[in-house]
Write a structure and sequence with these properties.
90% of the residues lie in helices and 0% in strands. Among the domains are: 135 residues, no CATH class; 42 residues. It starts with a helix and ends with a helix. The longest helix has 111 residues. The chain has 253 residues and is an all-alpha fold.
């Protein structure tokens, strides 16, 4: 910072010294007081003439005014006569040299300023800006590359997902078919087991019914024998009844 400050101080001092020297040798930029004190009336008339709108139009596009009126013609002749004076020619040459010299001097000082600042903090600042822009470009490129990789990975996952879905669909169909087959087999086994249980229960009920009927028939036969025992009390007759009862009991079983 001290270096650039010293440079700017030297730059301003040089500009002031050189500009002052140019003004002392070729200045001032306008008509000097000595000239105006001697030719003030003529110079004011000259300025009034060149600033007139008709004269400006004639000076810029003379083909548009083929025949100037008396006033415009008088201004044209006076301006030509005034600018042809030796004193005016001398001042015009001086002012032209002054302006030309100052233009070259200002252009050179601008170049010096740019070069001087470019080697200092401004150059560092510009280099930093360029580095920052490059870094941003690199980050943008990295981001784009990462985005492309993520897109490719997503597309690969989508393709794999489609394959998985196709495989899962086949697996689901196979599983459903197995469940249907198992369900049909289980239903058939269940129905067979149920029919068997019903048949067993039916047989048990029939057995129970037969036993109940047999008990009833035995009780009835016993009562009948007892009645016959009471009515016919002979041993031979009773033995015959017992044998008859046993035979009938064997038939009923």
């Amino acid at each position: 910072m001290a270096k650039i400050k010293r440079f700017l101080i030297i730059y301003v001092l040089v500009y002031i010294v050189v500009a002052t020297g140019i003004n002392m040798v070729y200045g001032p930029p306008n008509m000097p007081k000595e000239y105006l004190s001697e030719y003030k009336v003529d110079h004011d008339r000259y300025l009034e003439a060149v600033k007139n709108s008709d004269y400006k139009l004639w000076a810029q596009r003379p083909e548009l005014i083929e025949t100037p009126d008396a006033q415009l013609q008088d201004r044209i002749e006076y301006v030509a006569e005034y600018e042809a004076r030796e004193a005016y020619q001398k001042e015009a040459h001086r002012r032209h040299s002054y302006n030309l010299l100052f233009e070259f001097f200002n252009a050179g000082m601008v170049v010096v300023l740019i070069v001087g600042l470019a080697k200092g903090p401004v150059g560092t600042l510009v280099d930093g800006m360029i580095a920052s822009i490059r870094e941003q470009l690199d980050e943008t490129e990295s981001t784009l590359k990462a985005s492309e990789e993520r897109i490719q990975a997503a597309q690969a996952k989508i393709a794999g997902l489609d394959q998985d879905l196709a495989g899962n669909a086949e697996f689901v169909e196979e599983r459903i078919e197995n469940i249907r087959r198992d369900a049909a087999l289980f239903t058939g086994q269940s129905l067979s087991r149920l029919n068997k249980e019903v048949e067993n229960r039916k047989n048990n009920e029939e057995i129970k019914a037969r036993q109940a009927l047999k008990e009833v028939a035995v009780d009835a036969a016993i009562e009948q024998i007892l009645e016959q025992f009471k009515s016919n009390g002979t041993v031979t007759h009773n033995e015959a009844l017992i044998k008859q009862f046993v035979a009938e009991l064997e038939k009923s079983s």
